[in-house]
Specification:
Length: 274
């Protein structure tokens, strides 16, 4: 009996550590991207920005389908023909939640000259950090809810599958860190302060992940809803923010190609590691 308990607690500790490191991987991606400010003198070219934006959008769409929506529907299979219902409801609540944040939080995108959200006296650089932070909330929730499913013992979510999502989000977070730190440097901030700004824009991800895991542990049956909620939030970011950025000015074809690349990379990660 004592040996069985010891094995159980050992497995739980290992699982908890895997979740802890998995949650930090996307944050590490943002931090490494922000570190570009120490060895790059200029901001990213339009071609590179379009490519990275397209790649990020592709990763987020693929992750929403394979890592979030499909597991949400599979976990609701006991509902029979209505197994789509939790995914349907969660997806739409996620869309509406990001729509609300978009309207109540003042923010400014790197290539935009117009402030979105309510009027504010905040500096342009602060609102630019807020824009990336808004993007990172659903990504942190996605990682958190997938690891919550893994910790709950869900058959549909494995450690490898959760790791695949973390790696995919980390890859697309790398340019987001640079998109914050480099413009801050160009605006006159010191490299160290610009780096910290980039890092802080990603700090919301592990916070959102931990909060989501906590909520999932309190009400396990809502896991399918939370999975699809994160998917809806990410799809909102892609459709409302990333895709329009791809078609501003030139290099839109490059953005489309990298969207496709990001999509298949995330798809391969999810299928190969699951």
């Amino acid at each position: 009996m004592h040996l069985t308990e010891l094995i159980f607690h050992t497995e739980k500790t290992v699982n908890d550590m895997e979740a802890f490191y998995g949650i930090l991987i996307p944050f590490l991606g943002t931090s490494l991207g922000a570190a570009c400010v120490f060895f790059m003198k200029k901001s990213l070219s339009d071609a590179v920005q379009r490519s990275l934006t397209g790649f990020a959008a592709g990763v987020m769409v693929a992750a929403s389908v394979w890592s979030l929506l499909i597991p949400a529907i599979e976990q609701s299979s006991a509902m029979g023909k209505l197994s789509f219902l939790p995914a349907f409801l969660g997806f739409w609540v996620g869309i509406l939640f990001l729509l609300l944040l978009d309207h109540v939080v003042p923010h400014l995108h790197a290539k935009s000259g117009q402030v979105e959200g309510p009027k504010s006296q905040l500096q342009r650089t602060t609102m630019m950090v807020l824009a990336v932070t808004l993007h990172n909330i659903p990504e942190g929730m996605a990682v958190g809810v997938v690891y919550a499913g893994y910790l709950s013992g869900s058959a549909q979510i494995t450690a490898a599958g959760a790791l695949a999502l973390s790696l995919g989000i980390a890859i697309q977070n790398f340019p987001e860190g640079a998109v914050v730190s480099l413009p801050l440097r160009a605006a006159g901030f010191r490299r160290k302060k610009s780096f910290i700004g980039g890092v802080l824009s990603g700090a919301v991800e592990p916070a959102a992940a931990v909060l989501t895991i906590f909520l999932s542990e309190q009400i396990t049956p809502v896991l399918p809803f939370l999975l699809s909620f994160a998917a809806g939030a990410m799809i909102y970011v892609v459709v409302a923010e990333l895709i329009p950025e791809l078609h501003e000015h030139e290099y839109s074809d490059l953005g489309t190609l990298f969207f496709s690349l990001g999509f298949v990379v995330m798809m391969i990660l999810d299928v190969a590691l699951s």
